[in-house]
Amino acid sequence: MRIAVTGSIATDHLMTFPGRFADQLVADQLHTVSLSFLVDKLDVRRGGVAANIAFGMGQLGTRPILVGAAGADFDEYRAWLERHGVDTDSVRISETLHTARFVCTTDADHNQIGSFYTGAMSEARLIELKTVADRVGGLDLVTIGADDPEAMLRHTEECRTRSIPFAADFSQQIARMDGDEIRILLDGATYLFSNEYEKGLIESKTGWSDAEILSRVGHRVTTLGPQGVRIERAGQETIEVGCPEEERKADPTGVGDAFRAGFLSGLAWGVGLERAAQVGCMLATLVIETVGTQEYQLHRAHFMERFTKAYGDEAADEVREHLR
Questions:
Q1: What is the pTM of this model?
Q2: Which residues are part of the catalytic machinery?
Q3: Which residues have CB under 8 Å from 315's CB, separation 6+?
Q4: N or C: which end of the chain has fewer CB within 10 A?
Q5: Which residues of the chain have pLDDT under 50?
């Protein structure tokens, strides 16, 4: 099964300021604020929703096709993804812009000041999925994640025109989209991904009820945080899957992307919706136990031991053969 993952590709530059921002702010001078913080820690981490999802799928051996835009500074990141089983040949490289970048400083009270540079991500609207499909011999599914809004609309319309099944996954971009855009992006999707809060926001912005949305998509996949995931289909019984027990909680960043990576890999294996959701929840648990979105390691024996404990021998037997 050939799955293309579209969306953002970015790096995160995370700095730590040992003091408190509040101590540096003068109440009657906020209109002319000019501050520079001497930080004592810098972490540079790979990120972007499409790259995170593709990385997880690569770890599971499903060789995803990453589709997005990056800058000339992408070489090291590309090598990392290729080493972990990701096809990066359909990433567009900008001639003038850097790869998208999130720069954030966190103080001792965990307050944050951050900026997001879109950079090369704005050129994702220039990518044609037909070119990708022709290169790999056709596409069985395209997941359309948070990206340049024009790119998301273009990819969605092209999937409809070329009869390519697609998954709608707005995530961070839902806040800036209006109801008309959201209706266009979800109508006809084979899968609609969101968390529980985003589910309500989608209904509020579109003016469509839960039942109306279910009539317009094949599957509605709603992540529920520690409670796992719910999969709904019109006229069919709801599937609910819980999460494995966590060994620790280190960092929630990228957990949703990891669930999608596992779920999509399960679809690629053909193990069914419940098993796919279980794989997604297991991978998400590994990510929440690790600082960083692509810093976890997937050891097959350890993965299967915990998967078996959470979901039983029958489920494990179905998944194990795909992880060999």
A1: 0.92
A2: 257
A3: 275, 278, 307, 308
A4: C
A5: none
